[in-house]
Design a protein that fits this description.
- The protein is built from 13 helices and no strands.
- It has 300 residues and is mostly helical.
- Helix 7 packs antiparallel against helix 8 and helix 12 (265-279) runs antiparallel to helix 13 (288-299).
- The protein is elongated.
- It comes from Thalassarche chlororhynchos (Atlantic yellow-nosed albatross).
Amino acid sequence: GALWMCIVLNPHCKLEQKASWLKQLKKWNSVDVCPWEDGNHGNELPNLTNALPQGANANQENMGQCKSLEYQHLPAHKFLEEGESYLTLAVEVALIGLGQQRIMPDGLYAQEKVCRNEEQLISKLQEIELDDTLVKIFRKQAVFLLEAGPYSGLGEVIHRESVPMHTFAKYLFTSLLPHDAELAYKTALRAMRLLVLESTAPSGDMSRPHHIASVVPNRYPRWFTLSHIESQQCELASTMLTAAKGDVRRLETVLESIQKNIHSSSHIFKLAQDAFKIATLMDSLPDITLLKVSLELGLQ
């Protein structure tokens, strides 16, 4: 309903378009089964969900409207400009939905659902082979998400309880890396943060033990999926370390990000092991910088 309100209130739309939409909405209102639930009622109209490859375990649940968004009964030329197709539109809508800032919901089931929906949508996207047109869309959306305001989960400032972007950023990183390494690293490094684990102690004199004790118990919200989220954060860091082998500047930047953002000693130790393995692959000479990264992380 909110989506259709935005469409109908578009000041640039002609009266005949609005009349056409009204007729279509009345038609949908008269049927027993909503066309979004049963495609047979709207199969003559383009559906962006169906433009994505349909895997065996395709998830039908919505995620930020991006799985079921339909441009229905609208003139095709209004959307399909040169180089565009319903596939490119579907991919772009999916990237917009995945990158939106959203607050972690309450409860175990809802939090698991957030992770599951994100991973299933990314899994569908991974079935698509990126061509030049899609790479342009990835670049455009990555830049937009980095520069956007509070609606973006990759914006400069986010809410402390915003759903982390680690999984999405890892997908963006691997997709962009062969085409725009600078943007790939910028996106992944921005996503490394995990603000929910940052201290929220109020400013002032914190030297009194009873004052500290009164703050710490309420320090973290109840994130039941936190261990999974920290694992995804570690995976993102490991992916960057692997890609940065041989590049001293990037390795130092990734090391700083790990030291700043990862709070789990076990994950830092795992990254130290990963760095050592990557640095000492048998088919090449040891990477001295990566060995130093391994040592630094091990000491930490």
